[in-house]
Amino acid sequence: METVLNKIVINDCYGGFDLSEDAIIWLKNNGLSDIQIDEIPRHHPLLVECVETLGEKANGMFSNLVVKVIVGNIYRIDNYDGLETIIQPYEDNWIVIND
Hints:
This protein is an alpha+beta fold. It has one domain. It has two helices and four strands; from the N terminus they run E-H-H-E-E-E. It has helices spanning 21-29, 45-54; strands at residues 5-11, 65-71, 76-80, 83-87. A two-stranded antiparallel ribbon has the order 1-2. The protein has a two-stranded antiparallel sheet with strand order 3-4. A hairpin with a 2-residue loop joins strand 3 and strand 4. The model has no long low-confidence stretch (mean pLDDT 90).
């Protein structure tokens, strides 16, 4: 069985996910038009490339964007006052009913 790795962009500080003007321009110049920041999938290859390429210049006013690598293709992002963490199914305490 092959291990699948995926990259996800999250905000790693209190404040909230936001892109700088430089990042928005970079995304538009690289083919992502009509940008709605809150609608870009965090695993979108262009978003990941943008954050990796621009580094700190991709950060919005109150954000610190980082790229995290996950195993598999299922995730959700939890948010506490803008600080985000990635949760994957194997990390959660799932309750299974075995009747």
